[in-house]
Amino acid sequence: MTTSPHRDFGPSATGHDTPVLDSTIHHVEAGSGDPIVFLHGNPTSSFLWRHVFRRLDGQGRLLAADLIGFGDSGKPDVDYDLADHQRFLDAWFDALGLTNVTLVLQDFGAAFGLNWAARHPDRVRAVLLAEPVLRPIESEHLPEQFVATRALVRTPGDGEQFVLDDDRFLTELFPATFLEPLAPEVLAEYRRPFPTPQSRKPVLYFPRNLPVDGDPASTVEFLDRSTEWLRTSDTPKSLLTFEPGFLLTPAIRQWAAETVRNLEITPAGAGVHFVQEEQPEAIADAVTALLARS
Q: What is the phi/psi pair of residue 249, to 5°?
């Protein structure tokens, strides 16, 4: 089924629902040629990429996907753990037969994109990372309020109350992570896929499992599965840095510089975490430069 996505994706963009496993993955698409796949994290959707997407018109086949449970993708009765997201995303890549893919990744979308790349190296052309979940984060480099909120969300009962029942992750925590407040209609679009406590179940998993100080070990192990490919692959890679940034701490930046093969690290301006809202032109320019390298 083809639908009309948000107008900010541009006049040529179309929405698509692809059957995968027992549900559907939604994506926005435009153009033709080698695929450029955009993957988001929590609690957003393909909508996060709209301004970057539009600026890359003509560069290839643009595909901005919604993770399972997010955006306009299906909401099956699963745990929404890392394995669930990976198997649905793997099935989507296969259903569309995507090869020679440039991956443009943010937040947990980076964890899933790199995991896929490490297992399908012959299908990857290049990788760009912007505020990725890449390595365990040191709590000393995180805001105290975030550390306290994460502890609350990880507490059984309290986390359900905060995220599911009171909707405070989407109404309080998320809007506070931008340099400038989001327009009301933009915030409303981010909140649209999560009108009920049950629909917000996918949002709860990620803050509970963000790896801080090596915990939880299961997330660290998941990220480690991509390390050997990052270390040895000649695939061109680009890492964008932002000020003040959020996930890309000095230690993680140093790890990337010392570990990731064929990596260029590029300052991309002011931004916190959802940098696609703050620096779409810089990100689009970086994708264009990466395509030229590859």
A: -75, 165
Q: What is the CATH number of the domain that holds 16?
A: 3.40.50.1820
Per-residue pLDDT band for 51 (boundaries 50, 70, 90) equals very high
H or E element, residue 293: helix 280-293
| Coil, helix or strand at residue 215 | strand
Phi and psi torsions of 177, nearest 5°: -100, 25
Task: Quote the longest CA-to-CA distance of the chain.
Answer: 50
- Strand-pairing partners, residue 101, are 124
Tell me, yes or no, if 107 is annotated catalytic. Answer: yes
Whether residue 145 has pLDDT greater than 90 = no
Per the domain annotation, does 201 fall within a domain? no
Q: How many domains are there within the chain?
A: 1
What's the average model confidence in pLDDT over 161-178?
Answer: 96
pLDDT in tens, 213-261: 999 999 999 999 999 999 999 999 999 999 999 999 999 999 999 999 9
Q: Helix, strand, coil proportions of the chain in percent (round to 5)?
A: 45, 20, 35
| Residue 197, preceding peptide bond in cis (omega within 30° of 0) | no
Cα–Cα distance list, 160 to 76, 168, 271 (Å): 19, 10, 29
Query: Which of 72, 84, 131, 277 is the catalytic position?
Result: 131
Decide if 250 contacts 270 (C-beta within 8 A): no
Annotated catalytic residue: which of 26, 273, 277, 278? 273
* Residue 18, domain member (yes or no): yes
Residue 90 belongs to domain spanning: 2-136+218-293
Helices (H), 169-275: 184-191, 201-209, 217-224, 227-232, 250-259
Which is catalytic among the residues 107, 189, 277, 278?
107
